[in-house]
């Protein structure tokens, strides 16, 4: 990585500013994830409302970052590593925005779920999963700041764990639903939350991939580890006994 | 569709090897080498002519720089030179060169007899054709300067007669002597003997460079020095007048004058003036300076004025070229920081154009130095036979000659000894021109700056 | 973070430096500038862009009456510098040019020493009363042009011996030595390599603190990089004038868009 300053100091200021915005956005998204899952656990509708509000801020930030990136491209004609910075910033912000959307979705379901009887132990499992995604996001953003490819690869591998957690939850929810059809509504919502969290993990992985692209100029060719087998393996789901 | 049609007409070039030359390339190469050979030939012919010119000039002219001298002990007989014996300078001066001549010839005859040279001449008068007519004058000058030497015997290094000089330089042949009243075969025998005895010798002739012109019969005495002074005074006038006038006119025309029909007209006329034959300037000078303004004839001032007229167009044209060559970015830079037009010209443009201006001026001067025709018309061919600083050459208003005019004068004269001197004068003139051109080149190199 | 923010800030603090009203320029029969109205802000870099022969250089040269040196050039309309008409009969262009300095396309240092190049303007304008004062002006100007460190040990060396970029910065130092209020730059980087260009551009960005800068450039990228305001000229008309980021991301006029996207030249 070339870390020397540009002769045009304004260019450095532009690039730094745009990356500072990404970090700010990352922080907001992290908070949203944690708040969303906490509100679910505590059945705190107010906290859920906060998550929805902060998503509006995140969306605004994304638009700002897009505009800034467009200006940098238009005014400074970035090349090589500068170009990769701008491109990766745009993709990272898009991914962060999606994560923020999922968090908002979680918060929405929290409002519905809080009207229903709780499903045993599910909230804690979801929280563990969300915490893991949050840690991954934090690592991915650290990797971005430090231009740390190894850390980025580690993040990509950790997505497997999240997928595993999702598999477990998927089975758990199926079992609950088969046990008692009254659980179906709640479990469906919970399952969507789990699925959203799993998708968050995928977006974090995409961010980590952008870090690798930014540093090396190449997207990782290694096939991403896939832990989520529910869509391909019918054996994962417990069978109905006729 | 038309494109396709034409495309079909084009025959794709046959596959050819780079190692084999095609006919076209061969023809082009032939043409190129022919042209190069022609150019080389042209340069060669030019060099050949230059070589012929230089060898002719040097071989003809170098003789003028050596001269034959006779070492004669002369008894300064008081009975003849100072009859009253009072050593009164006024009395001594009354004795003319006719009184000195016999003393010199006696001295020579005695010298011949002392050396035991066998000769048919017994009278001192017969020695006359060996010694230059200027010898008596030289002895007289010496006596007047040193009256106390009267009564002594003083050895003089006197000029030999031009026939003797010519004989030693192979210009006068024995077979020609029969028809020559000035010298006889016996004299030549005597000269041979005197050379053997070391009395007659050739030496470097300083007086050719410093001396004045001499009469038709005294070729051995003539020098170009006085004409050189005349040329020098003229060049001084030309330089002092044409440089400031020319440069001022050029700066005005190039930097300040508006672009209109009038300035165009001036420009065309200046270019035309540069091409006007120099004799036209001569007749103009004659009419204006001498007939109208009544300035003295043959004066370096008038010559300088005429040559100034002739040189001005050259200087203006070269100065304008030098000013034009200064990039306009320099002027703009000066204007851009708030300099006035005149400041930009005098602080920046003129210093940059200086080498070009000086070169042009020196070349103009060199041209003027070699100019003859206009000088003939204003009478700058004065016959000045006395050496500086004796009067005549002391100033701008006194009659004088100029180097090229002097050369022309010599070339006109009948005595072949003058022919040699004309060539010698040309060598000196060429040396002057060469020096001036070298100075021009050095100035250009020294002051030339890149921008 | 973006320069636009600064530009907005300065707009509120400072006022209009140059104000052109209905400016028309004729070169003999040729109508070079057609009815240009524009207001240039103080402490701002304004870029003039446009295809060759669009009049941007001509208009720039109207601002310090450099066009006066061309006989056939006629200027109509009003150009006000701080509210005073610079084409008023009482205005001496020499005095105006001391206030409105100019840097040219080709670096054109005088073939004199670096010191004399910078000291020339102050000398002819009598800005220094002593040698010490002159030294100070020279040093300040060279520092201001970000070239002091490169030349401080060889102020007696000829200015023409510097590299292209250094020469151009020397010319900028020479221009700011007369303490102008406005600096006009006519394609200041067109003869420079990319690194030297970047250095000069960085310098221009710096100069904005003390001067208003007007720069004519053939390089749209350069206009984008250095300016806060951009004016697009086409066929003698001022087509569009506005914030640089606006012009380069979303211009209002179709001709501007076609030009900056490389569709008309």
TrEMBL record, chain A:
Plays a role in the regulation of phosphate uptake. One of its GO terms (cellular component) is cytoplasm. This is Phosphate-specific transport system accessory protein PhoU. Residues 220-229 have a biased composition (Basic and acidic residues). Its main location: cytoplasm. Homodimer. Belongs to the PhoU family. Keywords: Cytoplasm, Phosphate transport, Transport. Residues 218-242 are annotated as: Disordered. GO terms for biological process: intracellular phosphate ion homeostasis; negative regulation of phosphate metabolic process; phosphate ion transport. InterPro entries: PhoU, PhoU-like_sf, PhoU_dom. It is found in: Cytoplasm. It holds the Pfam family PhoU. It comes from the Bacteria. Residues 22-110, 126-211 form the PhoU domain. Coiled coil: none annotated.
Automatic annotation (TrEMBL), chain B:
It is found in: Cell inner membrane; Cell membrane. Keywords: Cell membrane, Membrane, Transmembrane, Transmembrane helix, Transport. GO terms for molecular function: phosphate transmembrane transporter activity. It comes from the Bacteria. One of its GO terms (biological process) is phosphate ion transmembrane transport. The chain crosses the membrane at residues 37-58, 232-253, 273-295, 301-323, 349-370, 422-443. One of its GO terms (cellular component) is plasma membrane. The keyword Isomerase does not apply. SUPFAM superfamilies: MetI-like. Residues 228-440 form the ABC transmembrane type-1 domain. Belongs to the binding-protein-dependent transport system permease family. CysTW subfamily. NCBIfam families: 3a0107s02c. This is Phosphate transport system permease protein PstA. It comes from Roseovarius albus. The lineage of its organism: Bacteria, Pseudomonadati, Pseudomonadota, Alphaproteobacteria, Rhodobacterales.
Automatic annotation (TrEMBL), chain C:
It is found in: Cell inner membrane. Residues 18-260 form the ABC transporter domain. SUPFAM superfamilies: P-loop containing nucleoside triphosphate hydrolases. Keywords: ATP-binding, Cell membrane, Hydrolase, Membrane, Nucleotide-binding, Phosphate transport, Translocase, Transport. It is a peripheral membrane protein. The keyword Oxidoreductase does not apply. Pfam families: ABC_tran. One of its GO terms (cellular component) is plasma membrane. It comes from the Bacteria. GO terms for molecular function: ATP binding; ATP hydrolysis activity; phosphate transmembrane transporter activity. Its main location: membrane. One of its GO terms (biological process) is phosphate ion transmembrane transport. Coiled coil: none annotated. The keyword NAD does not apply. Its EC number is 3.6.3.27. Part of the ABC transporter complex PstSACB involved in phosphate import. Responsible for energy coupling to the transport system. This is Phosphate import ATP-binding protein PstB. It comes from Roseovarius albus. The gene is pstB.
């Amino acid at each position: 990585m070339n870390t020397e300053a540009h002769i045009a100091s304004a260019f450095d200021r532009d690039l730094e500013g745009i990356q500072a915005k990404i970090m700010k956005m990352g922080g907001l998204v992290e908070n949203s994830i944690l708040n969303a899952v906490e509100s679910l656990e505590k059945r705190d509708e107010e906290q859920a409302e906060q998550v929805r509000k902060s998503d509006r801020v995140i969306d605004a930030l994304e638009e700002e970052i897009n505009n800034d990136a467009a200006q940098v491209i238009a005014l400074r004609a970035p090349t090589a590593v500068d170009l990769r910075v701008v491109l990766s910033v745009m993709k990272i912000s898009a991914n962060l925005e999606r994560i923020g959307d999922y968090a908002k979705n979680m918060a929405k379901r929290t409002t519905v779920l809080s009207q229903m009887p709780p499903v045993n132990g599910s909230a804690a499992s979801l929280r563990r999963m969300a915490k893991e995604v949050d840690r991954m996001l934090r690592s991915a953003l650290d990797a971005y700041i430090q231009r740390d490819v190894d850390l980025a690869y580690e993040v990509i591998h950790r997505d497997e764990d999240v997928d595993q957690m999702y598999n477990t939850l998927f089975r758990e929810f199926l079992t609950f639903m088969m046990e008692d059809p009254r659980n179906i509504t709640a479990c469906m919502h919970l399952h969507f939350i789990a699925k959203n969290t799993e998708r968050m993990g995928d977006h974090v992985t995409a961010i980590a991939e952008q870090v690798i692209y930014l540093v090396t100029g190449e997207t990782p060719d290694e096939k991403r580890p896939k832990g989520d087998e529910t869509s391909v393996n019918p054996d994962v789901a417990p069978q109905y006994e006729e | 569709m038309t494109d396709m049609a034409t495309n079909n007409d084009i025959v794709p070039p046959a596959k050819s090897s780079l190692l084999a030359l095609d006919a076209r390339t061969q023809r082009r190469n032939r043409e190129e080498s022919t042209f190069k050979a022609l150019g080389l030939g042209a340069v060669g012919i030019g060099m050949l002519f230059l070589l012929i010119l230089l060898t002719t000039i040097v071989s003809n002219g170098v003789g003028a720089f050596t001269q034959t001298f006779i070492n004669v002990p002369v008894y300064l007989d008081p009975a003849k030179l100072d009859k009253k014996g009072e050593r009164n300078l006024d009395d001594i001066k009354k004795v003319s060169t006719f009184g000195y001549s016999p003393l010199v010839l006696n001295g020579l005859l005695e010298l011949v007899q002392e050396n035991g040279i066998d000769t048919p001449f017994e009278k001192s008068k017969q020695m006359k054709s060996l010694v230059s007519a200027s010898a008596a004058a030289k002895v007289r000058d010496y006596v007047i300067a040193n009256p106390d030497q009267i009564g002594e015997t003083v050895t003089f290094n006197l000029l030999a007669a031009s026939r003797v000089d010519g004989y030693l330089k192979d210009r006068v042949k024995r077979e020609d002597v029969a028809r020559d009243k000035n010298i006889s075969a016996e004299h030549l025998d005597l000269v041979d003997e005197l050379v053997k005895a070391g009395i007659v010798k050739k030496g470097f002739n300083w007086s050719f460079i410093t001396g004045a012109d001499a009469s038709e019969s005294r070729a051995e005495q003539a020098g170009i020095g006085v004409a050189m002074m005349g040329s020098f005074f003229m060049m001084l006038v030309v330089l002092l007048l044409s440089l400031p006038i020319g440069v001022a006119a050029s700066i005005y025309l190039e930097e300040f004058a508006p672009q209109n029909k009038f300035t165009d007209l001036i420009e065309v006329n200046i270019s035309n003036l540069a091409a006007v034959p120099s004799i036209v300037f001569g007749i103009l000078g004659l009419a204006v300076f001498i007939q109208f303004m009544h300035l003295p004839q043959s004066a370096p001032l008038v010559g300088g004025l005429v040559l100034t007229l002739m040189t001005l167009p050259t200087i203006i044209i070269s100065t304008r070229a030098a000013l034009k060559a200064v990039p306009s970015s320099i002027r703009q830079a000066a204007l851009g920081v708030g300099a006035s037009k005149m400041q930009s010209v005098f602080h920046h443009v003129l210093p940059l154009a200086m080498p070009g201006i000086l070169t042009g001026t020196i070349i103009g001067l060199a041209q003027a130095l070699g100019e003859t025709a206009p000088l003939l018309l204003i009478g700058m061919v004065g016959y000045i036979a006395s050496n500086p600083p004796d009067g005549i050459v002391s100033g701008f208003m006194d009659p004088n000659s100029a180097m090229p005019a002097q050369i022309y004068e010599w070339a006109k004269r009948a005595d072949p000894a003058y022919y040699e001197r004309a060539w010698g004068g040309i060598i000196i003139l060429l040396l002057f021109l060469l020096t001036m051109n070298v100075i021009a080149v050095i100035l250009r190199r020294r002051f030339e700056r890149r921008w | 973070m973006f320069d636009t923010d600064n530009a907005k800030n300065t707009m509120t603090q400072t006022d209009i430096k140059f104000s052109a009203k209905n400016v028309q320029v004729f070169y003999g029969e040729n109508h070079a500038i057609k009815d240009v109205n524009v207001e240039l802000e103080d402490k701002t870099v304004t870029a003039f862009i446009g295809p060759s022969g669009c009049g941007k250089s001509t208009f720039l040269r109207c601002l310090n009456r450099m066009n006066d040196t061309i006989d056939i050039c006629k200027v109509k309309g009003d150009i006000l510098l701080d509210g005073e008409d610079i084409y008023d009969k009482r205005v001496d262009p020499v005095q105006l040019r001391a206030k409105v300095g100019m840097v040219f396309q080709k670096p054109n240092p005088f073939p004199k020493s670096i010191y004399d190049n910078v000291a020339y303007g102050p000398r002819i304008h009598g800005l220094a009363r002593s040698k010490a004062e002159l030294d100070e002006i020279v040093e300040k100007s060279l520092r201001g042009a970000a070239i002091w460190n490169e030349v401080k040990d060889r102020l007696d060396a000829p200015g023409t011996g510097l590299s292209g970029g250094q020469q151009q910065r020397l010319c900028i130092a020479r221009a700011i030595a007369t303490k102008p209020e406005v600096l006009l730059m006519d394609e200041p980087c067109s003869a420079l390599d990319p690194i030297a260009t970047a250095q000069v551009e960085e310098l221009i960005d710096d100069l904005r603190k003390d001067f208003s800068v007007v720069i004519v450039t053939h390089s749209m990228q350069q206009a984008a990089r250095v300016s806060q305001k951009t004016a697009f000229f086409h066929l003698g008309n001022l087509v569009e004038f506005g914030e640089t980021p606006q012009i380069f991301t979303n211009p209002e006029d179709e001709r501007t868009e076609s030009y900056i996207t490389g569709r008309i030249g």
